[in-house]
Amino acid sequence: HSYGGGGFRITKAPYDGSQFILPRYRQNWAAKTAKDISFKGLLAMLGSERPDLLLLGLGVVPMTNLPKLRNSLSEVNVRLEVMSTPAACRTWNVMVSEGRSVAAGLLAID
Question: Which of these, 35, 47, 43, lies nearest to 72 by C-alpha position?
């Protein structure tokens, strides 16, 4: 998997824009900034899935750690980790290779 140029390469296929991924599922994600991300929106993206960890890659340099969102997600037993998009991509690759329960919301970067 790779990133840049306003999109991602996931399982060898290119996708433009932000992406929301689970180990066996990928979906275009309308979020472009941290302000576009909400608890209800994330639950909709997760559907019936409740991974142990949700990685949010918020661009090149995240300007927030989304404390209210972190608290809301913890109430449904999902831990939130906020980081840069490159760090989230690397972390995702490692966690999936280990078979961990994880999802990722990745904001596209150039």
Answer: 43
Assigned token pair, 100: 């961990």
pLDDT digit string (tens) for 15-25? 999 999 999 99
Residue positions counted in the chain? 110
Give CA–CA dist 27/64, Å, rounded: 24
State the greatest distance between any 2 C-alpha atoms of the chain, in Å, as a whole number. Answer: 36
Contact 67, 80 (CB under 8 A): no
**Cβ-Cβ contacts under 8 Å for 63 (sequence gap 6 or more):** 34
Mean per-residue pLDDT, 27-39: 96
Whether 53 has a pLDDT exceeding 70, the answer reads: yes
What is the CB neighbour count within 10 angstroms for residue 90? 16
